[in-house]
């Protein structure tokens, strides 16, 4: 009898309970990243690029699903970040090297490694700052956006029939994306934008105009829009235009919580 009670106590102490639905969606994210790596090695670069784009959609969906079903958790946040390293760090780096940077030799694969390393550092910094940095801005370029720029560059070059092999512009983009991910440049997160509220009529016109331009040539225009977002944030940050990212508390990183029931309000937002 006493042994059974001891075993039950141990099970309660070390047992782990997770929310299945949002974490299954997160698993779809990492599957797409793994798919992209495999197809990059098979030299099917378009499939690999589309897989990274689909991974980004799953990355957006899992956090919103978790909050909608009130199933946010520390486990989900950590699992999401680990999946993002694969889908938006390793997969885009392998794709870029196989597709364009092999002719640069050691410089090419070191640029891709820099992309992966800075992406991982970006995620780690996001995780420890999630509760102390204002939600309206990201500090540094989010890693899904960096991965999306790599994927959309493949789609754009394919659509325009440009040769990516040994392209110095793509080498520069890879290195610059790595650096802006770990920079202190501020990027608008749009988390404070509530589309359910009433807004001026011209906002609708602007939205329709942007949608029209993207649909005219989606493969190219998505690359232009993503790259413009990254470039403008870097320019504004370099010349220190605008305010710096505001810390909610003093510049001491918030310690990670370890309780299984700890909730994170923005756990699976874009990193």
Structure characterization notes:
- Helix 3 (45-68) packs antiparallel against helix 6 (143-160), helix 4 runs antiparallel to helix 5 and helix 5 (106-129) packs parallel to helix 7 (168-181).
- The protein has 271 residues and is mainly alpha-helical.
- Strands 1-2 form a two-stranded antiparallel ribbon.
- It is 66% helix and 2% strand.
Tell me, what's the shape? Answer: globular
Order of helices and strands: HHHHHEHHEHH
What's the count of strands?
2
CATH class placement: Mainly Alpha
Portion of residues in beta strands equals under 5%
Taking Cα atoms only, what radius of gyration do you get, to the nearest Å? 20 Å
> Which oligomeric form is depicted?
single chain
Distance between the termini: 50 Å
Average residue-wise pLDDT: 81
Low confidence ranges: 248-268
What are the SSEs and their pairings?
Elements: H1 2-14, H2 20-41, H3 45-68, H4 74-101, H5 106-129, E1 137-139, H6 143-160, H7 168-181, E2 186-188, H8 201-216, H9 218-238
Antiparallel strand pairs: 1-2
Helix pairs in contact: 2-3, 2-4, 3-4, 3-6, 4-5, 4-6, 5-7, 6-9, 8-9
């Amino acid at each position: 009898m006493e042994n059974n009670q001891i075993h039950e106590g141990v099970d309660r102490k070390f047992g782990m309970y997770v929310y299945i639905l949002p974490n299954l969606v997160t698993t779809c994210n990492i599957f797409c990243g793994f798919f992209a790596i495999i197809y990059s090695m098979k030299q099917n670069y378009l499939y690999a690029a589309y897989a990274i784009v689909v991974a980004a959609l799953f990355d957006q969906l899992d956090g919103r699903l978790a909050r909608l079903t009130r199933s946010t958790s520390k486990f989900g946040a950590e699992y999401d970040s680990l999946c993002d390293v694969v889908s938006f760090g390793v997969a885009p780096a392998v794709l870029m090297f196989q597709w364009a940077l092999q002719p640069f030799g050691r410089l090419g694969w070191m640029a891709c490694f820099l992309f992966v390393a800075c992406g991982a550092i970006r995620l780690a910094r996001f995780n420890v700052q999630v509760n102390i940095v204002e939600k309206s801005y990201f500090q540094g370029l989010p890693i899904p956006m960096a991965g999306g720029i790599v994927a959309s560059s493949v789609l754009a070059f394919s659509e325009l029939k440009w040769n990516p092999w040994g392209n110095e512009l793509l080498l520069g983009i890879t290195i610059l994306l790595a650096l802006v991910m770990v920079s202190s440049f501020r990027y608008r997160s749009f988390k404070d934008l509530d589309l359910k509220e009433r807004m001026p009529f011209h906002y609708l016109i602007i939205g329709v105009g942007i949608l029209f331009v993207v649909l005219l040539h989606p493969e190219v225009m998505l690359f232009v829009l993503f790259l413009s977002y990254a470039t403008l944030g870097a320019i504004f940050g370099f010349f220190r235009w605008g305010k710096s990212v505001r810390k909610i508390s003093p510049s001491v990183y918030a310690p990670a919580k370890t309780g299984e029931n700890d909730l994170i309000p923005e756990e699976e937002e874009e990193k």
